[in-house]
Amino acid sequence: MSKDTTTPPLQEPEAQNLYGSIRELIQLARRQVATQVNHMLVLTYWRIGKLIKTEISQDDRSNYGEGTLKVLAAKLTLEFGNGFTYTSLTRMAKFYIAVNDEHIVATLSQQLNWSHMVEIIKLEDELKRDFYIALCSEGRWSVRVLRERIESMLYERTAIAKRPDLVVRQELAQLQQQPEHATPNLFLKDPYLLDFLNLPQGFSEKNLESAILEELEHFILELGNDFAFMARQKRLQIGGNDYYVDLLFYHRKLRRLVLIELKLGSFKAEYKGQVELYLNWLAKYEQQPDENPPIAIILCSGKELEEIELLGLEKGDIHVAEYWLKLPPKAVLQAKLHQAIQDAHLKLDLNQSDPI
Question: Cα dist. 14→24, 75, 121, 236, 344 in Å?
């Protein structure tokens, strides 16, 4: 006679409640073990990198150092496996160079794993590394998301990249210490890449809006994962007139409503008055007591920087950004964004040198 090995159903509420509590404890323990394992792994790799840089790479005879590292890699791989190849050891050394404070590494290892670090240490610019470390830690990005955002040049396209280095560092520090007081510069981009929309030739603003809604998940990912969709063509009744906001979002981190106006052509000065009207209405009728004032993004196919500057939009609550429906070659994109950043820094330098 065979024994019945099926699990009997939990009949009584007390048993069901106990099961839920125990299950929660087990899952919590598993998460904590995984976190601790990752913490020790990242910290160990950093310490190995430190040893490599201090004991081997300080030797002026670079060929000697390289040879020593290869011998070391062969011996470690034989004993501990493929995690200690020559390439892996050089990555550990780069990790130590990129983040040379053990206390910082200890904190990061609670939030990011070694695969995150491998992507981050590929970046040569220190400020860019700090940017991705801060946003990746705060946003809990997966390695895939981190890689995609580096590839799409998120840092260069973010408004904060066009500001002085000291300001960037201050705002990144504020994001890590007081996320609720983070500035919009960390979350607004220019340009936005909308190459996922597959729009037909001769499309209209309505086509653009419909395509965005059909691909809303992709669009929100391009905006940033703290955006929550609220409304399309939201009607505003002002006096005897009706106005319509193209898209309305809410940003959880900024605690602000964010309206998006879609324009087919280049930016025009009259858009400012239109959007200011919408912002004032939202502030009066939709803004909650615990929220910050609403902001706007005007998405255009082009803009003149001098016009934006003269209208005073660079420091206000209206952000004008281009959208690109097709991603150009990376070299072209990099050159265009690099020039935009250089122009912004030059203008900031000129403003600071003006006599009072």
Answer: 16, 57, 51, 53, 65
Q: Is 21 exposed, middle or buried (0-12, 13-18, 19+ CB in 10 A)?
A: exposed
Cα(234)–Cα(202) distance, rounded to whole angstroms? Answer: 25
Q: How far apart are CA 302 and CA 151, in angstroms?
A: 23
Order of all β-strands in the sheet with 241-251: 192-193, 318-324, 295-300, 256-262, 241-251, 227-238
Whose tokens are 């201090």? That residue is 54
What single string gives the DSSP state of each residue in 226-277? TEEEEEEEEEEEETTEEEEEEEEEEETTTTEEEEEEE-SSB--THHHHHHHH
Comparing C-alpha atoms, which of 305, 240, 308, 239 is closest to residue 271?
308
Strands 256-262 and 241-251: antiparallel
CB 118 within 8 A of CB 136: no
Q: Are strands 227-238 and 192-193 parallel, antiparallel or unpaired?
A: unpaired
Q: What is the rounded distance in angstroms from the CA atom of residue 283 to the CA atom of residue 116?
A: 40
The two tokens of residue 348 are 């900031």
Which of the four pLDDT bands, split at 50, 70 and 90, describes residue 355?
very low
Mutual angle of helices 165-177 and 126-139, in 10-degree steps: 20
Residue 4 has pLDDT above 60, yes or no: no
pLDDT at 230: 92
Distance CA 184, CA 50 (A): 37
Per the CB < 8 A criterion, the answer to whether 330 and 354 are in contact is no
Work out the number of other CB atoms within 10 angstroms of the CB of residue 260. 22
- pLDDT (0 to 100) of residue 356: 42
**Average pLDDT over the chain, rounded to whole?**
81
Beta bridge partners of 317: none
Q: What is the pLDDT of residue 164?
A: 65
Task: Identify the residue with better confidence: 113 or 345.
Answer: 113
171-198 average pLDDT score: 75
- Return phi, psi of residue 234, to 5°: -70, 130
